[in-house]
Amino acid sequence: MSEQAQSANLPAFLRPEAKTSKASYQSKAFEKLTHLEYDRLDEDNDILPFKHSQVVVNSGPQQYINANRITSPPTLRSSLPADFTGYIATQAPLPETQATFWRMVKEQQVH
Length: 111
Known about the structure:
Order of helices and strands: HHHEHEH
Shape: flat
Number of strands: 2
Largest sheet: 2 strands, antiparallel
Helix content: 25-40%
Number of helices: 5
Strand order of the largest sheet: 1-2
Distance between the termini: 40 Å
Radius of gyration: 16 Å
Number of domains: 1
């Protein structure tokens, strides 16, 4: 099945993410080289955060966490509570990243 046919089978709100994912996959080798300093902070070194939606922790000594913000599709936003800010996808924190993880939860007001 061609890429266009595969994309056509996706719900409309996922199509832009599919294109971004493909582009991201193609640049993984370069990204991996630039990501080496964070390897010790990731549960799984083969799963890297997307740069366009990566969560940055603003307080504390460590700003990096392997986490991405996921926004709701526009078609669902009207049915969500007004204070709903979306989701954050992240890896399980390692012992050395637990404090950073909880700072992220507090800063991003994750419930």
